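User: Can you model how guanosine-5'-diphosphate sits in this protein?
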Amino acid sequence: MFDNLSDKLDKALHTLRGHGQITEINVAETTKEVRRALLDADVNFRIAKEFTNKVKEKALGQNVLTALQPGQLMVKIVKDELTELMGGETEGINLSGTPSVILMSGLQGSGKTTFSGKLANFLKTKKTKKPLLVACDVYRPAAIDQLHVVGEQIGVEVYSDRDEKNPVKIAQAGIAKAKSEGYNVVIIDTAGRLAVDTEMMNEISEIHKAIQPQETLFVVDSMTGQDAVNTAKAFNDILNFDGVILTKLDGDTRGGAAISIKSVVDKPIKFIGTGEKMEAIDVFHPSRMAERILG
Ligand code: GDP
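Assistant: Here's the modeled complex, given as C-alpha coordinates:
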Protein backbone atom coordinates (compact mmCIF):
# COMPACT_ATOMS: atom_id res chain seq x y z
CA MET A 1 0.00 0.00 0.00
CA PHE A 2 1.40 3.40 -1.02
CA ASP A 3 4.86 1.91 -1.57
CA ASN A 4 6.00 4.65 -3.89
CA LEU A 5 4.87 7.43 -1.55
CA SER A 6 6.47 5.72 1.44
CA ASP A 7 9.77 5.39 -0.43
CA LYS A 8 9.79 9.00 -1.53
CA LEU A 9 8.91 10.34 1.92
CA ASP A 10 11.57 8.14 3.43
CA LYS A 11 14.14 9.54 1.04
CA ALA A 12 12.98 13.12 1.62
CA LEU A 13 13.29 12.76 5.37
CA HIS A 14 16.50 10.80 5.16
CA THR A 15 18.43 13.82 3.91
CA LEU A 16 17.84 15.53 7.27
CA ARG A 17 19.21 12.58 9.18
CA GLY A 18 22.65 12.85 7.65
CA HIS A 19 23.37 16.46 8.56
CA GLY A 20 25.46 17.38 11.60
CA GLN A 21 24.31 20.98 11.59
CA ILE A 22 20.79 21.58 10.29
CA THR A 23 20.01 24.84 8.58
CA GLU A 24 16.79 26.47 7.55
CA ILE A 25 17.76 25.63 3.99
CA ASN A 26 17.91 21.89 4.82
CA VAL A 27 14.41 22.10 6.30
CA ALA A 28 13.12 23.97 3.27
CA GLU A 29 14.67 21.39 0.92
CA THR A 30 13.18 18.53 2.88
CA THR A 31 9.70 20.02 2.89
CA LYS A 32 9.98 20.67 -0.84
CA GLU A 33 10.77 16.99 -1.38
CA VAL A 34 7.87 16.00 0.86
CA ARG A 35 5.62 18.18 -1.30
CA ARG A 36 6.95 16.55 -4.46
CA ALA A 37 6.28 13.10 -2.98
CA LEU A 38 2.68 14.10 -2.21
CA LEU A 39 2.12 15.53 -5.69
CA ASP A 40 3.51 12.32 -7.19
CA ALA A 41 1.01 10.39 -5.10
CA ASP A 42 -1.73 12.43 -6.80
CA VAL A 43 -2.47 14.66 -3.83
CA ASN A 44 -4.17 17.88 -4.89
CA PHE A 45 -1.73 20.78 -5.37
CA ARG A 46 -3.38 23.11 -2.85
CA ILE A 47 -3.49 20.43 -0.17
CA ALA A 48 0.14 19.45 -0.74
CA LYS A 49 1.19 23.08 -0.51
CA GLU A 50 -0.76 23.80 2.66
CA PHE A 51 0.51 20.58 4.17
CA THR A 52 4.17 21.35 3.59
CA ASN A 53 3.77 24.93 4.76
CA LYS A 54 2.36 23.63 8.03
CA VAL A 55 5.16 21.09 8.37
CA LYS A 56 7.77 23.76 7.78
CA GLU A 57 6.18 26.12 10.27
CA LYS A 58 5.96 23.40 12.90
CA ALA A 59 9.53 22.27 12.24
CA LEU A 60 10.93 25.73 12.77
CA GLY A 61 8.59 26.36 15.72
CA GLN A 62 9.68 23.14 17.40
CA ASN A 63 13.34 23.95 16.96
CA VAL A 64 14.24 21.22 14.54
CA LEU A 65 17.45 23.15 13.88
CA THR A 66 18.78 22.52 17.36
CA ALA A 67 17.10 19.17 18.04
CA LEU A 68 19.37 16.25 18.92
CA GLN A 69 17.70 14.09 16.29
CA PRO A 70 16.23 16.46 13.73
CA GLY A 71 15.40 13.64 11.30
CA GLN A 72 13.25 11.87 13.88
CA LEU A 73 11.52 15.06 14.92
CA MET A 74 10.68 15.80 11.29
CA VAL A 75 9.24 12.30 10.83
CA LYS A 76 7.05 12.87 13.88
CA ILE A 77 5.85 16.23 12.61
CA VAL A 78 5.02 14.81 9.16
CA LYS A 79 3.26 11.85 10.76
CA ASP A 80 1.16 14.08 13.03
CA GLU A 81 0.21 16.35 10.14
CA LEU A 82 -0.69 13.40 7.91
CA THR A 83 -2.90 11.99 10.67
CA GLU A 84 -4.60 15.36 11.00
CA LEU A 85 -5.07 15.65 7.24
CA MET A 86 -6.71 12.24 7.06
CA GLY A 87 -9.20 13.14 9.78
CA GLY A 88 -7.47 12.92 13.15
CA GLU A 89 -9.86 10.66 15.04
CA THR A 90 -11.46 7.38 14.00
CA GLU A 91 -15.18 7.83 13.32
CA GLY A 92 -17.76 5.06 13.57
CA ILE A 93 -21.12 4.78 11.86
CA ASN A 94 -24.45 5.82 13.31
CA LEU A 95 -26.49 2.77 14.23
CA SER A 96 -29.06 4.56 16.38
CA GLY A 97 -32.20 3.94 14.32
CA THR A 98 -34.74 1.12 14.63
CA PRO A 99 -33.85 -0.02 12.12
CA SER A 100 -30.70 1.94 11.27
CA VAL A 101 -30.79 2.69 7.58
CA ILE A 102 -27.49 2.92 5.73
CA LEU A 103 -27.54 4.25 2.17
CA MET A 104 -24.64 3.37 -0.11
CA SER A 105 -23.71 5.75 -2.92
CA GLY A 106 -20.97 5.91 -5.52
CA LEU A 107 -20.07 5.21 -9.12
CA GLN A 108 -20.50 1.84 -10.81
CA GLY A 109 -17.47 -0.32 -10.14
CA SER A 110 -16.41 1.61 -7.04
CA GLY A 111 -17.14 -1.43 -4.88
CA LYS A 112 -20.57 -0.55 -3.44
CA THR A 113 -22.10 -4.00 -3.68
CA THR A 114 -19.00 -5.71 -2.37
CA PHE A 115 -18.75 -3.23 0.48
CA SER A 116 -22.46 -3.55 1.33
CA GLY A 117 -21.81 -7.26 1.85
CA LYS A 118 -18.64 -6.63 3.83
CA LEU A 119 -20.41 -4.16 6.11
CA ALA A 120 -23.36 -6.51 6.67
CA ASN A 121 -20.91 -9.28 7.52
CA PHE A 122 -18.87 -6.99 9.78
CA LEU A 123 -21.96 -5.83 11.68
CA LYS A 124 -23.37 -9.32 11.93
CA THR A 125 -20.22 -10.85 13.37
CA LYS A 126 -18.83 -7.99 15.43
CA LYS A 127 -21.79 -6.06 16.74
CA THR A 128 -24.54 -8.64 17.14
CA LYS A 129 -26.65 -6.82 14.57
CA LYS A 130 -29.22 -8.38 12.28
CA PRO A 131 -28.74 -6.73 8.88
CA LEU A 132 -30.91 -6.79 5.78
CA LEU A 133 -29.44 -5.97 2.37
CA VAL A 134 -31.65 -4.17 -0.17
CA ALA A 135 -30.95 -4.18 -3.92
CA CYS A 136 -32.02 -0.87 -5.46
CA ASP A 137 -30.30 -1.05 -8.85
CA VAL A 138 -33.25 -1.18 -11.24
CA TYR A 139 -31.12 -1.01 -14.40
CA ARG A 140 -28.80 -3.98 -14.14
CA PRO A 141 -30.36 -7.33 -13.25
CA ALA A 142 -26.80 -8.60 -12.80
CA ALA A 143 -26.34 -6.16 -9.93
CA ILE A 144 -29.33 -7.69 -8.12
CA ASP A 145 -27.94 -11.18 -8.73
CA GLN A 146 -24.56 -10.05 -7.40
CA LEU A 147 -26.07 -8.83 -4.14
CA HIS A 148 -27.94 -12.13 -3.75
CA VAL A 149 -24.70 -14.04 -4.25
CA VAL A 150 -23.00 -11.87 -1.63
CA GLY A 151 -25.93 -12.29 0.76
CA GLU A 152 -25.82 -16.07 0.41
CA GLN A 153 -22.09 -16.08 0.97
CA ILE A 154 -22.37 -14.30 4.31
CA GLY A 155 -25.74 -15.65 5.38
CA VAL A 156 -27.57 -12.32 5.22
CA GLU A 157 -31.07 -11.90 3.77
CA VAL A 158 -31.38 -9.79 0.60
CA TYR A 159 -34.56 -7.94 -0.34
CA SER A 160 -35.15 -7.24 -4.04
CA ASP A 161 -38.11 -6.74 -6.34
CA ARG A 162 -37.32 -7.33 -10.00
CA ASP A 163 -40.74 -6.08 -11.17
CA GLU A 164 -40.53 -2.73 -9.39
CA LYS A 165 -38.76 -0.02 -11.41
CA ASN A 166 -38.89 2.74 -8.80
CA PRO A 167 -35.86 2.47 -6.48
CA VAL A 168 -37.52 4.67 -3.84
CA LYS A 169 -40.35 2.14 -3.52
CA ILE A 170 -37.89 -0.75 -3.28
CA ALA A 171 -35.95 1.03 -0.53
CA GLN A 172 -39.16 1.80 1.37
CA ALA A 173 -40.41 -1.77 1.01
CA GLY A 174 -37.04 -3.04 2.28
CA ILE A 175 -37.26 -0.83 5.35
CA ALA A 176 -40.87 -1.96 5.96
CA LYS A 177 -39.74 -5.59 5.75
CA ALA A 178 -36.95 -4.89 8.23
CA LYS A 179 -39.41 -3.32 10.68
CA SER A 180 -41.91 -6.14 10.48
CA GLU A 181 -39.34 -8.93 10.57
CA GLY A 182 -36.97 -7.62 13.23
CA TYR A 183 -33.93 -6.60 11.19
CA ASN A 184 -32.14 -3.76 12.99
CA VAL A 185 -29.85 -2.58 10.17
CA VAL A 186 -30.87 -1.99 6.55
CA ILE A 187 -28.08 -1.55 4.01
CA ILE A 188 -29.35 -0.11 0.74
CA ASP A 189 -27.22 -0.73 -2.35
CA THR A 190 -27.98 1.73 -5.14
CA ALA A 191 -27.30 2.01 -8.86
CA GLY A 192 -24.11 3.72 -9.90
CA ARG A 193 -22.99 4.80 -13.31
CA LEU A 194 -19.56 5.02 -14.88
CA ALA A 195 -19.38 8.79 -14.42
CA VAL A 196 -21.32 11.43 -12.52
CA ASP A 197 -24.54 12.24 -14.39
CA THR A 198 -27.73 14.14 -13.59
CA GLU A 199 -30.00 11.12 -13.74
CA MET A 200 -27.96 9.15 -11.21
CA MET A 201 -27.68 12.17 -8.92
CA ASN A 202 -31.44 12.83 -9.10
CA GLU A 203 -32.19 9.23 -8.33
CA ILE A 204 -29.90 8.90 -5.31
CA SER A 205 -31.12 12.26 -4.07
CA GLU A 206 -34.76 11.09 -4.31
CA ILE A 207 -33.99 7.91 -2.38
CA HIS A 208 -32.07 9.91 0.21
CA LYS A 209 -34.92 12.37 0.74
CA ALA A 210 -37.58 9.68 0.91
CA ILE A 211 -35.89 7.37 3.40
CA GLN A 212 -33.77 9.81 5.44
CA PRO A 213 -31.06 7.31 6.32
CA GLN A 214 -29.13 7.47 9.61
CA GLU A 215 -25.97 7.07 7.61
CA THR A 216 -25.16 7.87 3.99
CA LEU A 217 -21.87 6.46 2.82
CA PHE A 218 -19.97 7.36 -0.31
CA VAL A 219 -17.91 4.52 -1.77
CA VAL A 220 -14.89 5.36 -3.87
CA ASP A 221 -12.17 3.41 -5.62
CA SER A 222 -8.84 4.59 -4.20
CA MET A 223 -7.12 3.75 -7.50
CA THR A 224 -8.86 6.69 -9.19
CA GLY A 225 -6.75 9.41 -7.49
CA GLN A 226 -7.85 12.98 -8.26
CA ASP A 227 -11.02 11.68 -9.93
CA ALA A 228 -11.99 10.11 -6.63
CA VAL A 229 -11.79 13.50 -4.99
CA ASN A 230 -13.86 15.19 -7.73
CA THR A 231 -16.52 12.49 -7.60
CA ALA A 232 -16.65 12.81 -3.82
CA LYS A 233 -17.28 16.53 -4.18
CA ALA A 234 -20.13 15.96 -6.65
CA PHE A 235 -21.86 13.39 -4.42
CA ASN A 236 -21.33 15.44 -1.30
CA ASP A 237 -22.93 18.51 -2.89
CA ILE A 238 -26.10 16.49 -3.49
CA LEU A 239 -26.19 14.17 -0.48
CA ASN A 240 -24.15 15.84 2.24
CA PHE A 241 -23.03 12.31 3.06
CA ASP A 242 -21.72 11.19 6.45
CA GLY A 243 -18.63 9.25 5.53
CA VAL A 244 -16.36 7.86 2.88
CA ILE A 245 -15.49 4.24 2.15
CA LEU A 246 -12.18 3.87 0.39
CA THR A 247 -11.98 0.61 -1.55
CA LYS A 248 -9.21 -1.32 -3.31
CA LEU A 249 -6.46 -0.14 -1.00
CA ASP A 250 -4.89 -3.55 -1.53
CA GLY A 251 -4.10 -2.55 -5.12
CA ASP A 252 -1.28 -0.46 -6.44
CA THR A 253 -2.82 2.84 -5.37
CA ARG A 254 -0.68 5.95 -5.08
CA GLY A 255 -2.48 7.26 -2.03
CA GLY A 256 -3.77 10.63 -3.23
CA ALA A 257 -7.43 9.87 -2.55
CA ALA A 258 -6.78 8.63 0.97
CA ILE A 259 -4.77 11.71 1.81
CA SER A 260 -6.88 14.39 0.09
CA ILE A 261 -10.50 13.35 0.43
CA LYS A 262 -11.17 14.36 4.05
CA SER A 263 -9.80 17.80 3.53
CA VAL A 264 -11.78 18.36 0.30
CA VAL A 265 -15.25 17.25 1.45
CA ASP A 266 -14.71 17.57 5.20
CA LYS A 267 -16.16 14.12 5.80
CA PRO A 268 -14.30 11.28 7.52
CA ILE A 269 -13.13 8.10 5.86
CA LYS A 270 -14.90 5.45 7.95
CA PHE A 271 -13.87 2.12 6.47
CA ILE A 272 -11.43 0.81 3.93
CA GLY A 273 -11.72 -2.16 1.57
CA THR A 274 -8.57 -4.21 1.22
CA GLY A 275 -9.58 -7.07 -1.07
CA GLU A 276 -12.41 -8.85 -2.82
CA LYS A 277 -13.24 -11.20 0.04
CA MET A 278 -16.02 -10.41 2.50
CA GLU A 279 -13.52 -10.22 5.37
CA ALA A 280 -11.36 -7.60 3.62
CA ILE A 281 -12.78 -4.61 5.52
CA ASP A 282 -11.06 -2.44 8.13
CA VAL A 283 -12.14 0.48 10.25
CA PHE A 284 -10.10 3.48 9.08
CA HIS A 285 -7.65 4.83 11.64
CA PRO A 286 -5.90 8.01 10.41
CA SER A 287 -2.94 7.57 12.77
CA ARG A 288 -2.36 3.95 11.76
CA MET A 289 -2.53 4.93 8.11
CA ALA A 290 0.01 7.71 8.66
CA GLU A 291 2.19 5.22 10.49
CA ARG A 292 1.96 2.83 7.55
CA ILE A 293 2.78 5.52 5.03
CA LEU A 294 5.87 6.64 6.93
CA GLY A 295 6.94 3.12 7.90
P1 GDP B 1 -20.25 -1.56 -7.59
O1 GDP B 1 -20.53 -1.50 -9.07
O2 GDP B 1 -19.95 -0.23 -7.01
O3 GDP B 1 -21.31 -2.29 -6.83
O4 GDP B 1 -18.88 -2.38 -7.45
P2 GDP B 1 -18.63 -3.92 -7.09
O5 GDP B 1 -18.92 -4.18 -5.65
O6 GDP B 1 -19.32 -4.78 -8.08
O7 GDP B 1 -17.05 -4.01 -7.26
C1 GDP B 1 -16.42 -3.83 -8.52
C2 GDP B 1 -15.20 -4.75 -8.58
O8 GDP B 1 -14.25 -4.34 -7.62
C3 GDP B 1 -15.52 -6.20 -8.26
O9 GDP B 1 -14.76 -7.02 -9.12
C4 GDP B 1 -15.05 -6.36 -6.82
O10 GDP B 1 -14.66 -7.69 -6.53
C5 GDP B 1 -13.89 -5.41 -6.78
N1 GDP B 1 -13.63 -4.87 -5.42
C6 GDP B 1 -14.48 -4.28 -4.57
N2 GDP B 1 -13.85 -3.88 -3.43
C7 GDP B 1 -12.55 -4.25 -3.57
C8 GDP B 1 -11.37 -4.12 -2.74
O11 GDP B 1 -11.37 -3.55 -1.64
N3 GDP B 1 -10.21 -4.62 -3.25
C9 GDP B 1 -10.16 -5.23 -4.48
N4 GDP B 1 -8.97 -5.68 -4.90
N5 GDP B 1 -11.23 -5.36 -5.27
C10 GDP B 1 -12.41 -4.89 -4.84
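A couple of observations from the model: The mean pLDDT is 92. The first strand starts at residue 100 and ends at 105.
User: Helpful, thanks.
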